[in-house]
Design brief:
nine-stranded mixed sheet; binds magnesium ion; alpha/beta; Lysin; binds adenosine-5'-triphosphate; elongated; about 500 residues; 17 helices
């Protein structure tokens, strides 16, 4: 009788163990057979799961990613200098996870929650897995609200919506980070929480970004997650997933979140390094075949949630570095196809001093147009078209000595639009400030102003319109459409402002 009862209890207990997410099995231990280059191979961990954390001596953690019949390939998240073959390790029964909570805002951490600033211990609510399923179609809603970057060329011509994935792509030193950082700065009073995820960059570059965010009071609202070029490739690999988990904590509370991955080229390289060491078969450009899936899985987590799922949004701005403007390389083409559009930064424009060096013709935002404020749409409607016509004409006109009056006028107008689209770094503008200037230039008000004076004219227009028509500016900020007569009022004030600048010359 007692035996039967014991048996039944044992069966029931086993069932519980089977069904539980973290089985109560005995901690399994294994032995390292090889370690080096940021990976370790282990024998003896026969029931380990994929993505499970493995504990090494000195509190170094690793993640099991290669499960083979007699061996497990583990990527190391910490320093492997003191690890050697022959040491014993244990499986933890836990998947790789990251801390989440409000306490992370304003902090600089790594993917595992290690503090990298001087702000004392990290206060967090709980730890959540770094790999989490993306929201389902049912939970999603179309992109409807703009994510204002404060950059004229983007907000007017390549508008981004909350919940969108927009790639920032360009050669090295073309201003990619600046576009992303300026976008973060512009969120400071808009209630959008930001996560800046630095992958594989030099420590000094990351420090510069942190300083800028601090200087422009944007750090309080931002979590900085870093894996520098000196960190092991395993840490560089999981960092964007961990950063997304930290961002999703706020998304699930119905908040709007922006995440920047700077950059995924270095992330792909870290994964390539690991895969080759783990002897996975290389594919195009020696990247493992699943790199596409890895990036797609990451960016699928960006979403605008339906009201019944809380209504929050996670906008993703992944950055990709190209070599010699080759956007048809493997990683750039992958990401172009995964995202909802790209902002292309051109080294040619950068060297001409046309900053931000956004090549409007090669940039696109596939869903953001629907989220653009109606007031903005009426301003930027044909700006894009007339601007690209101008670019074509300008190239063509270089070979022509004599131009007819109409062509000359189109070119002179286009030059003024280009001048207006220039913008200093870390100087995001409010929607109304952008709209009044763009309206003035597209109405041809600046066509007779000499190029050197455009900047002064822009400042004068913004100042006068704000001083004289504060209510209309307020209306523009809310995104409500302006009537013809209201625009006429704006243009009248702009004319006066421009006249003042011209007189002063
Ligand atoms: P990397 O490839 O090294 O990551 P990047 O493409 O991220 O470079 P940034 O670091 O953002 O480029 O910018 C390169 C340089 O250009 C920086 O010195 C930055 O200050 C300057 N810069 C970027 N945008 C502007 C701008 N709008 N106005 C003036 N200077 C700018
Ligand atoms: Mg950069």
């Amino acid at each position: 009788m007692l035996e039967q009862l014991l048996d039944e209890t044992l069966i029931a207990l086993n069932q519980v163990v089977e069904q539980s997410a973290y089985p109560l099995r005995a901690r399994e231990t294994g032995r390292v057979t090889h370690v080096g280059g940021g990976i370790a191979r282990i024998k003896g961990l026969s029931s380990i799961r994929s993505e499970e954390l493995v504990r090494f001596p000195d509190d170094v953690l690793g993640v099991a990613i290669n499960l083979e019949p007699h061996e497990v390939g583990v990527i190391l998240l910490g320093d492997s200098d003191r690890l050697t073959a022959g040491i014993d390790v244990s499986a933890t029964g836990r998947e790789a996870d990251a801390p989440v909570g409000e306490g992370l805002l304003g902090r600089v951490v790594d993917a595992t929650g290690r503090v990298l600033d001087s702000g004392g211990p990290l206060r967090f609510k709980e730890r959540r897995p770094v790999e989490r399923p993306a929201p389902t179609i049912i939970e999603r809603a179309p992109v409807t609200v703009p994510l204002e970057t404060g950059i004229k060329a983007i907000d007017a011509l390549i508008p981004i919506g909350r919940g969108q994935r927009e790639l920032i792509v360009g050669d090295r030193q073309t201003g990619k980070t600046s576009v992303a950082v300026d976008t973060i700065i512009n969120q400071r009073n808009r209630g959008v929480i930001c996560v800046y995820c630095a992958i594989g960059q030099r420590g000094t570059a990351v420090a510069r970004v942190i300083n800028t965010l601090h200087q422009y009071r944007a750090l309080e609202n931002t979590i900085v997650v870093v894996a520098s070029d000196e960190d092991p490739p395993g840490l560089r690999y999981i960092t964007p997933y961990a950063a997304t988990t930290m961002a999703e904590y706020f998304l699930e509370q119905g908040k709007d979140v922006l995440i920047v991955y700077d950059d995924l080229t270095r992330h792909a390289r870290a994964y390539r390094e690991l895969s080759l060491l783990l002897r996975r078969p290389p594919g195009r450009e020696a990247y493992p075949g699943d790199i596409f899936y890895l990036h797609a899985r990451l960016l699928e987590r960006a979403a605008h949630l339906h009201q019944r799922s809380g209504g929050g949004s996670l906008t993703a701005l992944p950055i990709i570095e190209t070599q010699a403007q080759d956007i048809s390389a493997y990683i750039p083409t992958n990401l172009i196809s995964i995202t909802d559009g790209q902002i292309y930064l051109s080294p040619t424009l950068f060297h001409k001093g046309l900053l931000p060096a956004i090549d409007v013709g090669k940039s696109i935002s596939r869903v953001g147009g629907k989220a653009q404020f109606p007031a903005f749409r009426s301003v930027s409607g044909d700006l894009r078209l007339s601007y690209s016509q101008f670019e074509e004409l300008e190239t063509f006109a270089r070979f022509a000595t004599r131009l007819d009056e109409e062509t000359r006028a189109t070119i002179e107008h286009g030059r003024r639009v280009r001048e207006v689209l220039k913008q200093a770094e870390h100087h995001p503008l409010r929607s109304s400030e952008q709209m009044v200037v763009l309206k003035a230039v597209s109405a041809g008000l600046l066509d007779h102003v000499i190029l050197d004076k455009i900047d002064d004219a822009e400042t004068a227009i913004q100042k006068h319109v704000l001083d004289e028509l504060p209510d209309l500016c307020g209306q523009m900020e809310t995104g409500k459409k302006l009537s013809e007569s209201q625009w006429e009022q704006v243009l009248e004030v702009a004319r006066k402002a421009i006249a003042g600048v011209e007189d002063g010359s």
